Amino acid sequence: MRSIAERLGISRNTVARAVRSEGPPKYERVPVASAIKTVEPRIRVLLKENPRMPATVIAERIHWSGSPAWLRENVARIRPEYAPADPADRISYEPGDQIQCDLVFPAVKIPCGTGPARVFPVLVMVCSHSRFIMARMIPSRTTGDLLAGMWELLGGLGAVPRRLIWDNETGIGRRNRYAAGVAAFAGVLATRIVQVKPYDPETKGIVERANGYLESSFLPGRTFTSPTDFNDQLAVWLSKANTRLVRSTAARPAELLPTDRAAMIELPPVAPVTGFHAKVRLPRDYYVRVSSNDYSVDPQAIGRFVDVSADLETVRISIGDRNIGTHPRSWDRGLTITDPSHVQAAKTLRAAFQNPEVADAGDIDDLVRDLAEYDRVFGVVLDDGMISS
Questions:
Q1: Which residues, 6+ apart, have CB-to-CB distance to 127 below 8 Å?
Q2: In the chain, N or C: fewer CB atoms in 10 Å?
Q3: Cα–chain-centroid distance for residue 16?
Q4: CB-based contacts of 212: which residues, under 8 Å, 6+ apart?
Q5: pLDDT tens, residue by residue, 263-312
């Protein structure tokens, strides 16, 4: 043992203990209870109430004084039991299958008429296969304007996909129920309007990316004088944007569009019903209201039911096939739009009402009939027993 101790440079007692031991020496640490074990039940209670609660907030709630990294590691271990992962699949889009639709509200106010500048919605539609973008500013997000905007964009495309993908936009429908007129619109186009589940942006990610592209590449540095000016500038920009190279398809939307459009359905021979439609009785002030604005009507129709229709550009009032009023549609609010010819016609009618023509005496005498004629016609017997002749 002495020679071994001298050769290894260690104590003889150390050599003696090693010889007496049954195996090589090893370090054994006395087990200590983990601090996480004591607070884990409280962590689970918090995650059950709010599975997405950050680890920093959990540390504050449980008064954690240990290592933040150690707490984050254990919260990450426990969290999947209360917040399962939501994987998103890679989706491939067949030609002609779908067009994704959405509304975007640009952070720029557009001057409109004499009223204050306002933010108007922009209808964005993207062919999923080719990534071809179509867009147009519309007056409102009502059902009539949404359908009119879709019909105009599809008319410019020249074809209809098998499906139109929407989110839960109120003007299209909510809770698996279409808004009034939407089912008829889809029926005329021989397509389906599909509303995706809430909080599932990946389902219509193509149009969501197009919205971001429009806001980051089209809007910065531009000024607009009216909605028409906005649409004109947007049309010029889209003609360039649709020639960009898309990384996911390794092609340009304008080049893939013919293949996409060839697989779609032809436009219907009859246009669907879109826009605003109403049937009202024309009041004495000979004005009808469309989207918060009042439009004059030929006062000859006062008291009669008139048909009021409005698309994105024009307001029309008619009785049957007879047109009794046409106005450019105003996107402003609270305006009164008057046709001078309607005012002149009302003036003429008012004068005729206030100064009626009095018939002369000769005309009144001509309207008086001898009562004996009625006796002769009905064979009335007189008091003397004779029949009036």
A1: 99, 157, 161, 253, 257, 260, 261
A2: C
A3: 87
A4: none
A5: 999 999 999 999 999 999 999 999 999 999 999 999 999 999 999 999 99
